[in-house]
Amino acid sequence: MLTLQRKVVHIVRQNFRWMVASWDKVIILTGLILFFFFYPGQNTLMVQKFSYTPTPSVTMIPTPSMAPYPVNTTNVVPGNEISATGVVVLDANSGVHLFKRNELMELSPASTTKLLTALVALDVYKLDDVVTVSSSSADGQVMGLVQGERITVENLLYGALIHSGNDAAIALADHYTDGSDKFIEKMNEKAVSIHMEKSHFVNPMGYDHPQHKTTPEDLARLAQVSLENKTIAKMVAIPAITIADVTHTTYHKLTNVNQLLGKIPGVAGIKTGWTEEAGENLITYVERDGKRIIIVVLHSKIRPI
Measured between alpha carbons, how far is 33 from 291 in angstroms, rounded to an integer? Predict the structure, then answer.
């Protein structure tokens, strides 16, 4: 019995000596066993690979709904009863032409020019800026400014847009820091920026000039942009108003030269114009039953009463 115990002790001591002498081999062997025990098989990896669903990187934007397309239900088509050389009738909601004639013909705009003058004035001035009138001389329609009169930009805009005062348009241009010529440059820059592709202007009031031209299509665009401006949209719809200089000593009674205002329901402006060369020009905005229509006529042969 004693001999057997001695043999067992001897074997245990030998194994222990081997483990101590080969400890690094034991660690490596144990690591390999653990690696192969926990290592996932190729099939598992393939399943994970092919079951992967990528997340979309682009968010789809819904297509905006279009305005209803206008349809002529009356079967009435404008004809020879329209004497104007250039005509555009535009559905403002959809941008569709209801009628057009020579819409790209270059014609004289006359006082419809003052809409662009007003847009530039609102870009470069504040409404309460005070203008000193440097000259009271102006041909044609005037609001009656007096040389040396001090009047706000707002009241000059009333004079230009309601009464179509040429003297008001000149005063707005002359007040520009770099002079009236630079103001006119700003007018042409503005025309380009609002996509009046075939227009050019050489004065702020609309006097006839070989290079002072626009088209019915460009004027329809000018009307759209002008009506988006709350100040202009308000002014062109006023039938009459009395304004004063800053000292309230000089008063100007202004009457809108657009005779359609207050007579035809839905008419809300926007600008008339007349010269010998241009003939009768008119931009009209009509809103009825949710429909918004812009009408441009240029070089009309009949002057309304």
Answer: 83
